[in-house]
Amino acid sequence: MDKLLSMKVFVSAIDLGSFTAAAAANDMSPTMVGKHIRYLEQQLETALIHRTTRRQGPTEAGKEYYARCREILASLLEAELISKRLNRGPVGEIRLSAPVAFGNRLLTPLIAAFLQHHPYINIEAVLTDRKVDVVAEQFQLAFRIGAILDEGLIAHPLPDYRMVLAAAPGYLARHGVPKHPRDLSRHNCFSFSQWRHNARWRLLGPDGEHEIALSPRLRIDSGEAIRQAALAGFGIALQSDVVLQDDLQSGALVRVLPDYAPPARPMWLLRLPAHPVSVKIDAFSTFVIETLHRRQATPC
């Protein structure tokens, strides 16, 4: 017999006071109710209900078992309701990681827009420029710039992360405007310190590819700090067009060698390889991927 059904029938018999009422509540005959009770008693090797011709009631063991059965059945019902709710719509917590500059400039407004339309989702966004361990640090999603090694994760491509050269007008007035990539070796140049070959910039332009050896006086592991150093007039920054877009439009920074740029860096949204994908993860991932592709930044 189905033990959970037998427990449900037993609880009904105690709650309703008779096998007949329990039978009606469970759409079965009183005889079948009796079979379910006897099944439980055989399994437990003890009587659960005192039965006489006039009345019935739980034994001491029956009272204890009744309380446990109610707890189990209530927990089962709660689990079923949660499962149904999760399948109907996005519910729950999402923990994600993203680079600081990307998170500040692009992702945070998207998160706010998403949450406004999904009131039963909460998001914890950890903005860091280090490469997080998605599994060990219990992230469900991670935004990653650059090549992806095989980490056993599902990688969804996002619009490429485009880079530009920029500097403050004051710096260029003091040190001159580079006319060709080879001129950069005579300037203060800086970029993200965690990138490989930070001391060499590979630029593509109308006359082909150039690899420029640099001796950077400043190494920074924060995209926003690179922006601030450029605004302070320290030198020429290699940074994302998204991060510098407002400054370029306002004139606080100007493009340097606008016909040259490094190859665009691929960007990814990583997730754990769960099957099926939870509703909340699928909803958020789809929203971000589609929105970023629609809003893909135009060249500055």
List keywords for this structure.
single chain; alpha/beta; D-Maltodextrin-Binding Protein, domain 2; 3 domains; five-stranded mixed β-sheet; four-stranded mixed β-sheet; 9 helices; 42% helix; LysR-type_TF_proteobact-type; LysR_HTH_N; sequence-specific DNA binding
Describe the structure.
- There is one protein chain.
- With 300 residues, the protein is an alpha/beta fold.
- It folds into three domains: 3-88, Winged helix-like DNA-binding domain superfamily/Winged helix DNA-binding domain (Arc Repressor Mutant, subunit A, Orthogonal Bundle), CATH 1.10.10.10; 92-161 and 265-294, 3-Layer(aba) Sandwich (D-Maltodextrin-Binding Protein, domain 2); 163-255, 3-Layer(aba) Sandwich (D-Maltodextrin-Binding Protein, domain 2), CATH 3.40.190.10.
- It is 42% helix and 22% strand.
- Helix 1 (3-16) crosses helix 2, helix 1 (3-16) crosses helix 3 (30-44) and helix 5 (100-117) crosses helix 9.
- The mean pLDDT is 88.
Q: In a nutshell, what does this entry contain?
A:
42% of the residues lie in helices and 22% in strands. The chain has 300 residues and is an alpha/beta fold.
Low-confidence stretches: none
Class inferred from helices and paired strands: alpha/beta
Beta content comes to: 15-25%
Sheet with most strands: 5 strands, mixed
Could you name the CATH homologous superfamily of the largest domain? Periplasmic binding protein-like II
Strand order, sheet with most strands: 4-3-5-13-6
- The second-level CATH architecture of the largest domain is 3-Layer(aba) Sandwich
**CATH classification, class level of the largest domain:** Alpha Beta
The run of helices and strands is HHHEEHEHEEEEHEEEHEHEEH
Tell how many strands the DSSP assignment holds: 13
Number of helices: 9
> If you compute it from the alpha carbons, what radius of gyration comes out, rounded to the nearest whole angstrom?
32 Å
Alpha-carbon distance between the two ends: 71 Å
> If you consult CATH, what is the topology of the largest domain?
D-Maltodextrin-Binding Protein, domain 2
The percentage helix is: 40-55%
Mean pLDDT: 88
